[in-house]
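Page 47, continued from p. 46.
Same chain as before, 112 aa.
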Amino acid sequence: MDMHPTPFRLTDRAAQRIAQISASEAGAALRVAVLAGGCSGFQYKFELDRAPAAGDSVIEHAGARVLIDPASLDLLAGSELDYTDELMGSHFAVRNPNAASSCGCGTSFSLD
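Result:
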């Protein structure tokens, strides 16, 4: 487990939702990854994972655990994970200061 201060944060809303999901999924953590692709060059991927892989950072906040691989963590430096519950639907959203632009789907971004 990475004991250094993390450049990635969770809002209280995100932590609460992750903790709810984790409780119903036998303690699974939320894995946040950045993949090449999407309509803007990179896209966020969210999935449940039972255990960290070698090299993963484990971010814990208010009963929630998030796993991030080293390459994704570099692209997520200074970012914040939030959970929004809006009329258009509920979803996790990353506020990434490194993203130069993002697309309307909210899961794709570019660094240019």
